[in-house]
Write a structure and sequence with these properties.
By secondary structure, the protein is an alpha+beta fold. It has one domain (about 1-95): Ybab, Chain: A, CATH 3.30.1310.10. The chain contains two helices and three strands. A three-stranded antiparallel sheet has the order 1-2-3.
């Protein structure tokens, strides 16, 4: 019975570690050759947006919208990829006996 408790305790510690790492994670994604850059934290909240003034064309707002959308989606993908890597590394080296 104590081995099950030990496994549960280890699983809880791993979950807490992942939550801490997710809270500390920040990614940056640029699109359009750096025309639009987005920073996002591990909870997928956009924390910063940088737009190169060259992309500001009142005649083509759609291009700017597309670039911002692409940058947000890329940052989101990087968060997912990073967190999956962390979960995978814990799973392969985490619980003894599994």
């Amino acid at each position: 019975m104590s081995s099950i408790r030990q496994l549960m305790k280890q699983a809880q510690q791993m979950q807490e570690r992942l939550q801490r790492e997710q809270a500390e994670l920040e990614v940056e994604a640029s699109v359009g050759g750096g025309m639009v850059t987005v920073k996002m934290n591990g909870h997928k909240h956009v924390t910063a947006v940088k737009i190169d003034p060259e992309v500001l064309d009142p005649e083509d707002i759609g291009m700017l919208e597309d670039l911002v959308l692409a940058a947000v989606n890329e940052a989101n993908r990087r968060i997912d990829e990073t967190m999956q890597g962390k979960v995978g590394s814990i799973a392969t080296g985490g619980l003894p006996g599994f």
